[in-house]
Design goal:
The chain is α/β, with parallel strands linked by helices and about 220 residues long. It is built from eight helices and nine strands.
């Protein structure tokens, strides 16, 4: 049985990943900033502020760490608050998990993440990826989905809802090198995470749309 520690377990991808991971017979621990009714009862919830997480993680000794952490600029309220979650908290979680013995980490990032991007969102995602690489896990899997579709969202975003409605049409325009920018079903991302938990080996692996779908089956 693999002991898994997951952050962001109450979010769109995290909830679905937790369901798949528990169904596979893993021991799943969810690290949360507040208690959640959306997490299955079979999952052990550990609740505390981000500042408390390192001490909490130290007692868990996970085999695999999974970060599904993420917010939006609208919810965060400022670029600094956004970065505090999507970069600082991601790396704090990862560093504590590494120190506690995790050999493998899976991180949900975003298609288009690049340090030189004109998008603050994508630059932040890229900076987090670089920080994870510096932690020297035995295996690092970076998942870069496109626009997430399906699932029950914890919040409604008008612009995103419109983009999701148009996705079946815009996806048709994205082929060849552009296929990585197609929309990605959130259930497929969760399935890819569950599949990657069982992978061994060493190195850094980046998974974009086509591979996400292949991993999820």
């Amino acid at each position: 049985m693999t002991r898994i520690l997951i952050s962001g377990a109450s979010g769109l991808i995290g909830r679905q990943a937790v369901e798949k991971l528990t169904a596979d017979g893993n021991e799943v621990h969810a690290l949360l900033r507040k208690q959640s009714d959306d997490v299955p009862q079979t999952v052990r919830q550990h609740v505390g502020s981000g500042a408390d997480w390192p001490a909490m993680i130290a007692d868990l000794s996970p085999d695999v760490a999974i970060s599904c952490l993420g917010t939006t600029m609208r919810i965060a309220g400022s670029p600094e608050a956004f970065r505090a979650v999507d970069h600082d908290l991601v790396l704090s979680f990862a560093a504590a998990a590494r120190k506690a013995g995790a050999r493998h980490i899976i991180n949900v990032s975003s298609v288009g993440a690049m340090p030189a991007s004109s998008s603050f969102y994508l630059r932040t995602k890229a900076d987090a990826e670089q920080g994870l690489k510096a932690l020297k896990f035995e295996r690092l899997d970076i998942i870069r989905p496109g626009l997430l579709t399906g699932g029950n969202r914890p919040d409604n975003r008008t612009g995103e809802s419109i983009a999701i409605m148009l996705a079946p049409f815009t996806d048709l325009l994205m082929f060849g090198p552009l296929s990585k920018y197609r929309s990605t079903p959130s259930a497929k991302v969760a399935g890819a995470i569950a599949a990657l938990v069982a992978f061994g080996g060493h190195g850094v692996f980046i998974h974009e749309n086509d591979e996400i779908n292949a991993l999820a089956g």
